[in-house]
Amino acid sequence: MSIKGLIKGLHHVTATVDGAQEDYDFYVKLLGQRLVKETVNFDNEKVYHFYYGNEIAVPSTIFTTFPYRGQGVRKGVIGTGQVTETIYSAPKGSMLFWKNRLQRHGVDVIEEQRFGESYLFFNDPSGLVIGILEDETDTREPVWLSDGITKNNALPGVHHVTFAVENLSETLPFLEAFGYEQIQSDGLYTRMEAGVGGAGNTIVVQDGSELPRGINGLGTVHHVAHRVASIEDSLKIKAFIEDEFGINVTEVKDRKYFQSIYFRIPGNVIFEVATEGPGFMVDETNEELGTSLKLPDWQEVRREQIEKNLTGFNR
Predict the structure, then answer these.
(1) For residues 73 and 219, is the Cβ–Cβ distance under 8 A?
(2) 233 φ, ψ to 5°?
(3) How far is CA 158 from CA 23, 35, 198, 203, in A?
(4) Which of 77, 102, 134, 171 is deepest in the core (most CB within 10 A)?
(5) Burial of 237 (0-12, 13-18, 19+ CB in 10 A)
(6) What is the pLDDT of residue 20?
(7) pLDDT at 116
(8) Residue 3 is assigned to a structural domain of this protein
(9) Burial class (CB in 10 A: 0-12, 13-18, 19+), 288
(10) CA separation for the pair 72, 251 (Å, rounded)
(11) How many structural domains are present in the chain?
Protein backbone atom coordinates (compact mmCIF):
# COMPACT_ATOMS: atom_id res chain seq x y z
CA MET A 1 0.00 0.00 0.00
CA SER A 2 1.20 3.53 -0.80
CA ILE A 3 -0.19 6.87 0.29
CA LYS A 4 2.04 8.98 -1.92
CA GLY A 5 0.11 11.82 -3.51
CA LEU A 6 -2.48 12.09 -0.75
CA ILE A 7 -0.53 14.75 1.17
CA LYS A 8 -0.76 18.00 -0.80
CA GLY A 9 1.53 20.08 1.42
CA LEU A 10 1.09 22.19 4.54
CA HIS A 11 -2.26 23.11 6.06
CA HIS A 12 -1.26 25.18 9.11
CA VAL A 13 1.24 25.58 11.94
CA THR A 14 0.08 25.88 15.57
CA ALA A 15 2.13 27.45 18.38
CA THR A 16 1.80 28.03 22.11
CA VAL A 17 2.34 31.73 22.83
CA ASP A 18 2.19 34.19 25.72
CA GLY A 19 -0.08 37.27 25.54
CA ALA A 20 -3.04 37.60 23.17
CA GLN A 21 -2.55 41.33 22.57
CA GLU A 22 1.16 41.08 21.77
CA ASP A 23 0.49 38.12 19.50
CA TYR A 24 -2.26 39.91 17.57
CA ASP A 25 -0.20 43.10 17.23
CA PHE A 26 2.83 41.22 15.93
CA TYR A 27 1.17 39.03 13.29
CA VAL A 28 -1.52 41.46 12.16
CA LYS A 29 -0.08 44.94 12.65
CA LEU A 30 3.59 44.18 12.01
CA LEU A 31 3.68 41.18 9.66
CA GLY A 32 0.45 42.15 7.93
CA GLN A 33 -1.37 38.84 8.24
CA ARG A 34 -5.14 38.75 8.45
CA LEU A 35 -6.83 37.43 11.57
CA VAL A 36 -9.11 35.06 9.68
CA LYS A 37 -10.66 33.31 12.69
CA GLU A 38 -11.06 34.17 16.36
CA THR A 39 -12.20 31.18 18.37
CA VAL A 40 -11.10 29.29 21.49
CA ASN A 41 -9.01 26.26 22.28
CA PHE A 42 -11.50 23.41 22.14
CA ASP A 43 -9.65 21.74 25.04
CA ASN A 44 -9.33 24.89 27.20
CA GLU A 45 -12.13 27.41 26.78
CA LYS A 46 -10.21 30.09 28.71
CA VAL A 47 -7.67 30.34 25.87
CA TYR A 48 -8.14 31.99 22.48
CA HIS A 49 -7.27 30.22 19.27
CA PHE A 50 -6.17 32.77 16.66
CA TYR A 51 -5.83 31.84 12.99
CA TYR A 52 -3.75 34.14 10.77
CA GLY A 53 -3.57 33.82 7.00
CA ASN A 54 -4.15 35.42 3.63
CA GLU A 55 -7.33 37.30 2.77
CA ILE A 56 -9.49 34.23 2.15
CA ALA A 57 -7.81 31.85 4.64
CA VAL A 58 -6.35 29.42 2.11
CA PRO A 59 -4.94 26.30 3.78
CA SER A 60 -1.10 26.42 3.67
CA THR A 61 -1.07 30.16 4.43
CA ILE A 62 -2.30 29.61 7.99
CA PHE A 63 -0.40 30.15 11.25
CA THR A 64 -2.38 29.64 14.45
CA THR A 65 -1.66 30.45 18.10
CA PHE A 66 -2.91 29.62 21.59
CA PRO A 67 -2.17 32.61 23.91
CA TYR A 68 -1.68 30.88 27.26
CA ARG A 69 -0.67 33.80 29.48
CA GLY A 70 -2.01 33.38 33.00
CA GLN A 71 -2.75 29.67 32.57
CA GLY A 72 0.32 28.37 34.41
CA VAL A 73 2.11 27.21 31.27
CA ARG A 74 5.91 27.24 31.52
CA LYS A 75 8.33 28.75 29.04
CA GLY A 76 9.20 26.12 26.46
CA VAL A 77 12.55 25.04 25.04
CA ILE A 78 13.02 25.00 21.26
CA GLY A 79 14.85 21.83 20.24
CA THR A 80 14.55 18.37 18.77
CA GLY A 81 11.12 16.86 18.28
CA GLN A 82 9.68 20.24 17.36
CA VAL A 83 9.18 22.73 14.58
CA THR A 84 12.04 25.15 15.24
CA GLU A 85 11.31 27.79 12.58
CA THR A 86 8.30 29.07 10.65
CA ILE A 87 9.26 30.78 7.38
CA TYR A 88 7.03 33.20 5.44
CA SER A 89 7.16 33.92 1.72
CA ALA A 90 7.90 37.43 0.52
CA PRO A 91 7.80 38.96 -2.98
CA LYS A 92 11.05 39.33 -4.86
CA GLY A 93 12.88 42.52 -3.94
CA SER A 94 11.05 43.05 -0.63
CA MET A 95 13.70 41.82 1.82
CA LEU A 96 15.09 45.28 2.56
CA PHE A 97 11.57 46.55 3.23
CA TRP A 98 11.03 43.82 5.82
CA LYS A 99 14.43 44.27 7.41
CA ASN A 100 13.80 48.00 7.84
CA ARG A 101 10.21 47.54 9.04
CA LEU A 102 11.19 44.99 11.66
CA GLN A 103 14.11 47.05 12.93
CA ARG A 104 11.97 50.19 13.16
CA HIS A 105 9.70 48.25 15.50
CA GLY A 106 12.61 47.17 17.69
CA VAL A 107 12.88 43.61 16.35
CA ASP A 108 16.41 42.24 16.06
CA VAL A 109 17.06 40.64 12.67
CA ILE A 110 19.65 38.06 11.63
CA GLU A 111 20.51 37.43 7.98
CA GLU A 112 21.48 33.93 6.89
CA GLN A 113 22.14 31.98 3.70
CA ARG A 114 20.69 28.51 3.11
CA PHE A 115 20.19 26.57 -0.09
CA GLY A 116 21.75 29.52 -1.93
CA GLU A 117 18.98 31.84 -0.73
CA SER A 118 18.83 34.76 1.73
CA TYR A 119 16.74 34.53 4.88
CA LEU A 120 15.77 37.00 7.58
CA PHE A 121 15.32 35.47 11.03
CA PHE A 122 13.79 37.12 14.11
CA ASN A 123 11.74 36.27 17.20
CA ASP A 124 8.10 37.01 17.85
CA PRO A 125 7.06 38.39 21.29
CA SER A 126 6.87 34.85 22.74
CA GLY A 127 10.27 33.77 21.42
CA LEU A 128 9.18 31.78 18.38
CA VAL A 129 11.71 31.80 15.55
CA ILE A 130 10.15 33.37 12.45
CA GLY A 131 11.80 33.81 9.07
CA ILE A 132 11.18 35.53 5.76
CA LEU A 133 12.32 34.19 2.37
CA GLU A 134 11.81 35.81 -1.03
CA ASP A 135 9.98 33.52 -3.47
CA GLU A 136 8.76 35.02 -6.72
CA THR A 137 7.01 31.74 -7.61
CA ASP A 138 4.55 32.03 -4.71
CA THR A 139 1.27 32.78 -6.49
CA ARG A 140 -1.13 32.31 -3.57
CA GLU A 141 -3.76 35.03 -3.74
CA PRO A 142 -5.21 37.28 -2.56
CA VAL A 143 -2.72 38.59 -0.05
CA TRP A 144 -3.93 40.75 2.83
CA LEU A 145 -2.98 44.41 2.50
CA SER A 146 -2.71 46.44 5.69
CA ASP A 147 -1.26 49.72 6.91
CA GLY A 148 2.12 50.39 5.31
CA ILE A 149 2.12 47.11 3.37
CA THR A 150 1.42 46.87 -0.36
CA LYS A 151 1.14 43.99 -2.81
CA ASN A 152 4.82 44.50 -3.65
CA ASN A 153 5.89 43.44 -0.17
CA ALA A 154 2.94 41.63 1.49
CA LEU A 155 3.65 38.15 2.88
CA PRO A 156 1.40 35.58 1.08
CA GLY A 157 1.60 33.05 3.93
CA VAL A 158 3.75 30.32 5.43
CA HIS A 159 6.40 29.15 2.96
CA HIS A 160 7.77 26.22 4.97
CA VAL A 161 8.62 25.00 8.42
CA THR A 162 11.90 23.66 9.75
CA PHE A 163 11.80 20.90 12.33
CA ALA A 164 14.67 19.28 14.19
CA VAL A 165 15.17 15.58 14.86
CA GLU A 166 17.92 13.64 16.59
CA ASN A 167 18.28 10.97 13.91
CA LEU A 168 17.78 11.83 10.24
CA SER A 169 18.15 8.19 9.16
CA GLU A 170 15.08 7.37 11.23
CA THR A 171 12.95 10.34 10.14
CA LEU A 172 13.67 10.85 6.42
CA PRO A 173 12.41 7.40 5.25
CA PHE A 174 9.15 8.00 7.11
CA LEU A 175 8.71 11.42 5.47
CA GLU A 176 9.31 9.93 2.04
CA ALA A 177 6.69 7.24 2.67
CA PHE A 178 4.36 9.95 4.02
CA GLY A 179 4.59 11.85 0.74
CA TYR A 180 7.50 14.30 0.84
CA GLU A 181 10.36 14.04 -1.66
CA GLN A 182 13.93 15.08 -0.90
CA ILE A 183 14.86 18.05 -3.08
CA GLN A 184 18.08 19.55 -1.73
CA SER A 185 20.53 19.34 1.16
CA ASP A 186 22.66 22.07 2.71
CA GLY A 187 24.74 21.09 5.72
CA LEU A 188 22.38 20.31 8.57
CA TYR A 189 19.26 20.95 6.48
CA THR A 190 17.29 18.79 4.03
CA ARG A 191 14.53 20.38 1.96
CA MET A 192 11.53 18.22 1.05
CA GLU A 193 8.40 18.94 -0.98
CA ALA A 194 4.93 17.44 -1.44
CA GLY A 195 2.31 17.96 -4.13
CA VAL A 196 3.26 20.67 -6.59
CA GLY A 197 6.09 21.76 -4.31
CA GLY A 198 7.19 25.29 -3.56
CA ALA A 199 5.64 27.73 -1.11
CA GLY A 200 3.20 26.14 1.31
CA ASN A 201 4.20 22.62 0.27
CA THR A 202 7.70 22.44 1.72
CA ILE A 203 9.33 21.20 4.90
CA VAL A 204 12.97 21.40 5.96
CA VAL A 205 14.38 18.73 8.27
CA GLN A 206 17.24 19.81 10.52
CA ASP A 207 19.87 17.50 11.96
CA GLY A 208 19.30 18.34 15.60
CA SER A 209 21.82 15.94 17.12
CA GLU A 210 23.59 18.88 18.80
CA LEU A 211 20.38 20.61 19.98
CA PRO A 212 18.62 20.23 23.32
CA ARG A 213 15.47 18.16 23.43
CA GLY A 214 12.46 20.39 22.84
CA ILE A 215 10.04 21.04 25.67
CA ASN A 216 6.55 22.23 24.85
CA GLY A 217 5.54 25.53 26.41
CA LEU A 218 5.27 29.24 25.72
CA GLY A 219 7.27 30.20 22.65
CA THR A 220 7.25 26.80 20.94
CA VAL A 221 5.37 25.26 18.04
CA HIS A 222 3.02 22.52 19.18
CA HIS A 223 2.41 20.83 15.81
CA VAL A 224 2.45 21.20 12.05
CA ALA A 225 -0.56 20.18 9.96
CA HIS A 226 -0.48 18.74 6.44
CA ARG A 227 -3.47 18.98 4.12
CA VAL A 228 -5.47 16.36 2.28
CA ALA A 229 -8.48 16.63 -0.01
CA SER A 230 -10.88 14.53 2.09
CA ILE A 231 -11.35 12.64 5.32
CA GLU A 232 -11.22 9.43 3.29
CA ASP A 233 -7.61 10.29 2.43
CA SER A 234 -6.89 10.91 6.11
CA LEU A 235 -8.25 7.48 7.03
CA LYS A 236 -6.08 5.84 4.37
CA ILE A 237 -3.05 7.62 5.83
CA LYS A 238 -4.06 6.56 9.36
CA ALA A 239 -4.29 2.89 8.33
CA PHE A 240 -0.98 3.04 6.45
CA ILE A 241 0.95 4.66 9.31
CA GLU A 242 -0.46 2.26 11.89
CA ASP A 243 0.17 -0.84 9.74
CA GLU A 244 3.56 0.06 8.27
CA PHE A 245 5.16 1.94 11.15
CA GLY A 246 3.23 0.84 14.23
CA ILE A 247 2.51 4.46 15.14
CA ASN A 248 -0.59 5.29 17.16
CA VAL A 249 -2.86 7.71 15.32
CA THR A 250 -5.81 9.46 16.98
CA GLU A 251 -9.38 9.05 15.90
CA VAL A 252 -10.80 11.80 13.70
CA LYS A 253 -11.22 15.12 15.54
CA ASP A 254 -13.85 17.60 14.35
CA ARG A 255 -12.22 21.05 14.32
CA LYS A 256 -15.27 22.65 12.62
CA TYR A 257 -13.19 24.21 9.81
CA PHE A 258 -11.44 20.92 9.03
CA GLN A 259 -11.23 17.36 10.33
CA SER A 260 -7.98 16.08 11.76
CA ILE A 261 -5.92 13.14 12.92
CA TYR A 262 -2.73 13.44 15.01
CA PHE A 263 0.39 11.36 15.65
CA ARG A 264 4.09 11.63 16.46
CA ILE A 265 6.50 10.83 13.66
CA PRO A 266 9.83 9.03 14.13
CA GLY A 267 11.77 11.95 15.58
CA ASN A 268 8.88 12.89 17.93
CA VAL A 269 7.46 15.87 16.00
CA ILE A 270 3.65 16.09 16.29
CA PHE A 271 1.99 15.88 12.87
CA GLU A 272 -1.63 16.64 12.10
CA VAL A 273 -3.36 15.65 8.88
CA ALA A 274 -6.19 18.10 8.16
CA THR A 275 -8.80 18.23 5.43
CA GLU A 276 -8.92 21.25 3.12
CA GLY A 277 -12.64 21.65 3.78
CA PRO A 278 -15.13 22.72 4.84
CA GLY A 279 -12.97 25.81 5.31
CA PHE A 280 -13.08 29.01 7.33
CA MET A 281 -16.13 30.53 5.64
CA VAL A 282 -18.64 28.03 7.03
CA ASP A 283 -19.62 30.58 9.69
CA GLU A 284 -18.41 33.92 8.28
CA THR A 285 -18.33 35.66 4.93
CA ASN A 286 -15.04 36.90 3.49
CA GLU A 287 -15.82 40.38 4.78
CA GLU A 288 -16.58 39.05 8.28
CA LEU A 289 -13.57 36.74 8.68
CA GLY A 290 -11.96 37.17 12.09
CA THR A 291 -14.16 40.05 13.23
CA SER A 292 -15.93 38.29 16.12
CA LEU A 293 -15.60 35.31 18.43
CA LYS A 294 -16.87 32.17 16.67
CA LEU A 295 -17.71 28.99 18.54
CA PRO A 296 -18.71 25.51 17.36
CA ASP A 297 -22.24 24.39 18.13
CA TRP A 298 -21.16 22.31 21.12
CA GLN A 299 -19.60 25.41 22.77
CA GLU A 300 -22.14 27.99 21.65
CA VAL A 301 -24.44 27.06 24.56
CA ARG A 302 -21.68 28.28 26.95
CA ARG A 303 -20.87 31.49 25.07
CA GLU A 304 -21.62 33.86 27.94
CA GLN A 305 -19.31 32.02 30.35
CA ILE A 306 -16.60 31.54 27.71
CA GLU A 307 -16.56 35.27 26.91
CA LYS A 308 -16.28 36.10 30.62
CA ASN A 309 -13.23 33.82 30.97
CA LEU A 310 -11.32 35.37 28.05
CA THR A 311 -8.97 38.26 28.78
CA GLY A 312 -9.92 40.21 25.65
CA PHE A 313 -7.72 42.12 23.22
CA ASN A 314 -7.88 45.30 21.18
CA ARG A 315 -7.94 45.19 17.41
Answers:
(1) no
(2) -65, -40
(3) 16, 14, 11, 11
(4) 171
(5) buried
(6) 98
(7) 97
(8) no
(9) exposed
(10) 28
(11) 1
Does residue 104 lie within any of the structural domains?
yes
**Neighbouring-strand partners of residue 161:** 86, 203
Contact 167, 209 (CB under 8 A): yes
CATH of the domain at 39: 3.10.180.10
**Structural domain span for residue 72:** 9-309
Q: What is the pLDDT of residue 312?
A: 87
Paired strand residues for 49: 39
Residue type, 65: T
Residues of the chain below pLDDT 70: none
Q: Is residue 276 part of a domain?
A: yes
Closest alpha carbon to 209 in 173, 169, 167, 268: 167
Residue 315 lies inside a defined structural domain of this protein = no
Against a cut of 0.85, is the pTM above it? yes
Calpha distance 39→139 (Å, rounded)? 28
Whether the Cβ atoms of residue 268 and residue 81 lie closer than 8 Å to each other: yes
CA 11 – CA 195 distance, rounded (Å): 12
Q: With CA atoms as reference, report the closest residue to 104 among 22, 29, 212.
A: 29
Would the CA dihedral through 114, 97, 110, 210 be positive or negative?
Answer: negative
- Residue 239, phi then psi, degrees to nearest 5: -65, -40
For 194, phi then psi, to 5°, come to -120, 165
Q: Closest Cα to residue 117, out of 179, 62, 159?
A: 159
